[in-house]
Amino acid sequence: MIDDLISMLPYLAHQAAFGAVAAAGFGVLFNFGGRALFWCAVAGALALGIRTLSQKTGASLEAATFLAAIGTSCIAILSRRWLGVACHAIALAGCIPMVPGAFFGQALLGYMAVAADTSGQSVAQLVASAQAFIRVISIVGAIGAGLAIPAYLLRSRQF
Amino acid sequence: MNTQPDTTEIDPADHHLLDRIAHVTLRAGAILAQSGASVRVVHEGARMIAGGLGVEVLGIRSGYASFEITLARDERTLTRMMQIGPHGVNHRLDFAVRNLVLRASHGGMTPEQIESELDSLQLDTPRHPPWLVAIATGAACAAFGRLLGADWLSFVPMLAAASIGQGIRHWLLGHRTNVFVVAAIVGCVAATLGGLGARLVGSGTVELAMMASILLLVPGVPSTNAQTDVLDGYPTMGSARAVWVIMIMVFAVTGLWLAEFVLRIPA
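ok -> structure tokens follow
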């Protein structure tokens, strides 16, 4: 068990590091200030770290994303003392690297290919596209629910 | 704008005051909505300002492009509507306006003072320079690419392509080009550049590089805000946001599809 954990550390570090870069990069686009940007990077690393660990322990991508979102949201709310009222926005920025844009792209490109197909042999493509689309809905739903549930339960609704 | 009050025989001075309050309340709400706040926050902000100015809010209605409020003071009521401009995400402006709303809710400010502070916030709230936003967005897309499994060789092409894409988006939006058309153009240019660059450096993940180069167009905040709005009891706005997200993705992927056609990448 410990050996497994040690062997996956480089991959975990890779995912967390690029999660941090993606969250901070989008934080700049969303006009977060300097200090908040640092916390966006931490939230991104945390979210990707939890998701990678969950997937390695057998969770599906959707379940792992939900756990990552709920974990990031809980930690952000509990750290409100340091993060201030922006804790919800920081948790959201941290979850942005998990938004399944690539799956959405795959699904739409697949549907376009099906529409252009005249051979009548596009069942496999149609199934793959539908699967990608269902994954998009599940993952976006997992992120939204994971971020919202702690805010409702911990009565930490932002203004 | 209609300047008739809902109730008749109103003192013009009272009517003018109620009008000013409605205007400043709507303006604060509109800025919050345009900065990426959820509908609940927008409504709460409007109620707080109105409460601080000694007025009761009888009703608020938010659409994707407009915002309506009915205020009451003593026996008088007034309904006003305001257009909401393009929706975006501006964290610092969002929280600066929330801070102003909190101060206004404690009372002691006039509508004119709040209006003037809103003007200052819109003008003076700092923004990162466009070149920094472009590079940061490029770095974010390249990081997305790595998370998706793109190889190291394609890292710099993804970064460069997405940075250029963000630069083009900034320029086109500044020239008031339609946001969906912008998504298609940026999707096509960024994916072509990312794919071409990745191919030139000998990457084995050209398609992933193309996909990652357009991820700057994925509306992550609106997609989670759509759910927040539905959860908070505003399904109309939530649905409008969801449709907007789907439309943006359709246009962005059309751009990507064109890029794949240009680079002769099989579907």
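Chain B has a mean pLDDT of 92.
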